[in-house]
Amino acid sequence: MREKKERRKEGGEDHMAEKKTDTCMEQIKTDEKYMREAIRQAKKAWKLDETPIGCVIVHEGRIIGRGYNRRNTDKSPLAHAEITAIRKASKKTGDWRLEECTLYVTLEPCQMCAGAIIQSRIPRVVVGCMNPKAGCAGSVLNLLDVKAFNHQAELTTGVLEEECSALMTGFFKELREKKKKEKAKSAV
Hints:
The chain is of the alpha/beta class. It contains five helices and five strands; from the N terminus they run αββααβαββα. The protein has helices spanning 2-47, 71-74, 81-93, 111-119, 161-187, and strands at residues 54-59, 62-68, 101-107, 124-129, 154-157. The longest helix is centred in the first third of the chain and has 46 residues, at 2-47.
């Protein structure tokens, strides 16, 4: 009798491990799905000769806010992908609190965007690639996890990292080539 109880217990633990693995795999698929949407937004920025950063905000399996970098286009330092997406999501929900949402962004948020994420109470942030020069979700600072603040956000990094990083690398390579051509043209 005792032996049977132990077997059931072990079987139950194995079953729980399978459930956790299944849940993890589902979360990875979900994160990749929405990061692809953020990448689509980033490509819109690139078409405008803007730094290709894209963002989507998801609530209950639906995208409720989208944004991409438009600083040069809008002539505004506030026109970051995350700020635009937060604005749209807040308008859609009718509330500045986005407490049950997940934000997906192709590049680690800057200090302004990390602050806006905390202020809007977004509980989870998924980042494609990190930004070692200006990132404020772990690279330079981690404003998403300051215990003194009244809110923190869970952070997942590296989702479709190669694709997100390739966007940035490709954009800046193209920008350098354009500048080189312009310089050569003006020298003639």
